[in-house]
Design a protein that fits this description.
The protein has 5 helices and 11 strands. By secondary structure, it is an alpha+beta fold.
Length: 301
């Protein structure tokens, strides 16, 4: 997700405290389609909270997460007439640590979550710098009086860039969007689900140049085992930097914890298809090529 996209999305959430939702049917009366979608989302969340499908998180739960992503690719550049203009090879990786503590629980939802960002190592991807405003810092994400509160542990304020880095946790105070999407983690084995932007953001995490609204996501349930729902994941992810696009076609397994909605396992690998154009000293050149990519996440309790 780009910084601008994350920030705008989070500000919208703070104003309405009603997470992103798939578009519903046409609006009626004076209600806009956005309001209709938010209302439908709230109804799904409320229904899940009342259902035995949703398990209650445990206050005091702690988790340590490792995230890793890498992209290796080769760009073939050509002029408008198709004449070759050169080949460029590049690689990018991101390695980071995070930790979580469920500070407070209200019924079946996490009311307050402490997020600590550990070491983060990554180089630029197509000129895009990984978002690092949160690196080495702790934050408290809490639902208070129907609104989302983002603060430092000492009560200090949070900057706009830090807000953007916390957008993955803006569901605090409600069931995780992954649990709402996946019926509390009870989707029968073999059943498929197509995801929206909020599900792509929550499952795959933040990558530079990626707008989750443009991610195509489909999962197939592998059933529940030891309190987690197993999934087979297929995602088409677009990394965009100006007119240059890297299309990642990723597949692999994942697991979702049924009490917290945290992604406990994710191991996606696949191909990279460069396309579009690149602005160079030789002018605007067409881009093609190939490559490989992987995205991994793992939580230890």
């Amino acid at each position: 997700m780009t910084r601008a996209t994350a920030s705008v999305w989070l500000v919208g959430f703070l104003m309405g405290c009603g997470g992103a939702a798939p578009a519903g049917g046409a609006a009626t009366g004076g209600e806009s389609s956005g309001e209709s979608a938010e209302s439908a989302q709230r109804q799904r969340e409320d229904a899940l909270v009342q259902s035995p499908k949703l398990l209650a998180p445990v206050k005091g739960t702690k988790a340590a997460e490792s995230r890793f992503a890498s992209i290796d690719f080769q760009l073939t550049l050509s002029r408008e007439d198709g004449a070759p203009a050169g080949i460029q090879s590049a690689s990018w990786s991101l390695d980071e640590k995070r930790s979580y503590e469920v500070v407070d629980v209200s019924g079946k939802v996490i009311r307050e979550l402490r997020v600590t960002f550990g070491a983060r190592e990554g180089n630029a991807l197509l000129g895009l710098e990984p978002h690092a405003a949160t690196s080495g810092q702790s934050f408290v994400v809490a639902a208070k009086a129907g609104k989302l509160s983002l603060t430092k542990p000492d009560g200090g304020s949070v900057s706009i860039n830090e807000e953007a880095g916390l957008s993955e946790y803006a569901w605090t105070g409600k069931p995780s969007p992954l649990l709402v999407w996946l019926d509390g983690g009870t989707v029968p084995s073999g059943e498929k689900r197509s995801g929206e932007a909020e599900h792509a953001r929550a499952l795959i995490g933040e990558l530079p140049g990626v707008d989750p609204k443009k991610t195509k996501l489909e999962v197939t349930s592998k059933g529940e085992s030891q309190g987690a729902l197993g999934l087979d994941v297929h995602a088409i992810v677009l990394v965009e930097s100006g007119p240059t696009i890297l299309e990642l076609d990723l597949t692999g397994p994942a697991q979702i914890d049924r009490k917290t909605g945290f992604v406990t396992e994710l191991s996606l690998t696949g191909s990279v298809k460069p396309r579009g154009k690149m602005d160079t000293k030789k002018g605007l050149l067409a881009v093609s090529g190939s490559g490989k990519a992987e995205v991994r996440r793992r939580i230890e309790w």
